[in-house]
């Protein structure tokens, strides 16, 4: 009996020397904190002084790996039920993960896109906590982030942030830095479909006669409406892109808000055939003597490929500028300002510049233009976009479509 007491006192003394070591039943258990949670692992070892010392050494190794950010649950506790849940996760802080992810992502995107992605990721990680471990993030954290983002930002902006964050979290999941399911928690907000808001013929007339103070503005607005060019494509047009003999424009590039050049939105150049008003507008623009010499510009094709072109701006702020140092090209933001002033003077309902593109599509569809032809003119990959976005204008013609098709079938017969 005395020996048993002495042995018991010896075990208690040994346990007291080592924190985080417990006796669970007839076995030794270690206790440690990881990812803000308390874990207990029973080792299956009988309670002896030697085993208590062994457990203390094992716990010390666990704490060291946690501190170094390389703790692998399955490596230390291969028989544990928890091992399967954490067998593929490593501890890294969000700012460190982001620093590694950004250059890897940048390889596949343009510098303009890289900048936008970088801003979105920085904002999201700041709100989540840059010093937080990726492994402790929960879907709830992403859901709270969504709530915070939508309180002060437009839905389209928040959706861009969430899509960008989802890509980052997907990379973290694939590399074992965070638990699975976080990327799926980046659910985008539903957006109300906004119908195109095309100009009427009367509104276009007001824009040209009252809103435009300079021949260049009248020609530019006419060209935008009768070609369906995107604002960035309109601003990047060069005199060398116009072929008056064939009556067409070569859309070879677009200009960004930073004044850099890239391929049009779909990544392909295209040729736009000109309606008579657009052709007259081109003639008027070519007749304007703005004195700008041809400029050599760089057009970014991909992240790693670009071409050099020597071209002369077709529509330039220099023509009406009062300042000397002016960008010879209209970037989307500067065209936005001019368009807003033109609408204000014309006293029509304000619209975004992109509505001139919608105007072109709607007018073509109401005139029963061929869908494939219109899609090609506008630079769409196919006419699916036309059907989705402009169905209202096609449906307006549906009562006459049966007779139109029947007449064609009769001719074919």
Automatic annotation (TrEMBL):
InterPro entries: DNA_brk_join_enz, Integrase-like_cat_sf, Integrase_catalytic, Min27-like_integrase_DNA_bind, Tyrosine_recombinase_XerCD. Coiled coil: none annotated. One of its GO terms (molecular function) is DNA binding. The keyword Calcium does not apply. Residues 194-404 form the Tyr recombinase domain. The keyword DNA repair does not apply. One of its GO terms (biological process) is DNA integration. Keywords: DNA integration, DNA recombination. PROSITE patterns: TYR_RECOMBINASE (PS51898). Pfam families: Arm-DNA-bind_2, Phage_integrase. This is Site-specific integrase. It comes from Stutzerimonas kunmingensis.
């Amino acid at each position: 009996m005395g020996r048993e007491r002495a042995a018991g006192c010896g075990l208690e003394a040994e346990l007291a020397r080592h924190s985080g070591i417990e006796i669970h039943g007839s076995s030794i258990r270690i206790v440690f904190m990881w990812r803000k949670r308390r874990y207990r692992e029973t080792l299956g070892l009988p309670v002896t002084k030697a085993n208590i010392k062994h457990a203390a050494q094992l716990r010390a190794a666990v704490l060291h790996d946690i501190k170094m950010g390389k703790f692998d649950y399955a490596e230390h506790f291969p028989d544990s039920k928890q091992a399967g849940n954490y067998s593929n996760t490593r501890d890294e802080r969000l700012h460190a993960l982001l620093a590694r992810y950004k250059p890897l992502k940048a390889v596949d995107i343009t510098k303009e896109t890289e900048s936008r992605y970088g801003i979105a990721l920085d904002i999201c990680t700041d709100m989540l906590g840059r010093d937080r471990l990726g492994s402790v993030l929960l879907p709830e954290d992403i859901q709270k982030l969504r709530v915070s983002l939508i309180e002060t930002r437009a839905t389209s902006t928040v959706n861009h942030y969430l899509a960008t964050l989802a890509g980052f979290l997907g990379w973290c999941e694939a590399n074992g830095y965070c638990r699975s399911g976080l990327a799926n928690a980046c659910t985008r907000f539903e957006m109300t479909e906004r119908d195109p808001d095309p100009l009427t013929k009367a509104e276009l007339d007001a824009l040209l006669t009252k809103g435009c103070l300079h021949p260049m503005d009248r020609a530019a607005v006419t060209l935008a409406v009768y070609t369906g060019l995107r604002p960035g494509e309109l601003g990047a047009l060069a005199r060398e892109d116009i072929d008056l003999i064939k009556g067409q424009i070569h859309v070879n590039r677009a200009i960004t808000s930073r004044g850099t050049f890239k391929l049009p939105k779909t990544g392909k150049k295209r040729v736009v055939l000109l309606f008579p008003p657009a052709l007259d507008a081109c003639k008027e623009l070519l007749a304007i003597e703005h004195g700008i010499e041809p400029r050599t510009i760089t057009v970014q094709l991909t992240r790693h490929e670009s071409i050099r072109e020597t071209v002369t701006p077709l529509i330039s702020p220099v023509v009406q500028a009062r300042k000397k140092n002016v960008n010879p090209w209209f970037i989307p933001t500067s065209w936005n300002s001019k368009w807003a002033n033109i609408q204000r003077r014309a006293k029509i309902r304000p619209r975004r510049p992109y509505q001139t593109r919608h105007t072109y599509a709607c007018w073509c569809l109401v005139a029963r233009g061929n869908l494939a032809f219109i899609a090609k003119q506008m630079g769409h990959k196919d006419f699916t976009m036309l059907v989705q976005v402009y169905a209202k204008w096609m449906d307006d013609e549906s009562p006459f479509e049966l007779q139109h098709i029947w007449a064609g079938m009769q001719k074919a017969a």
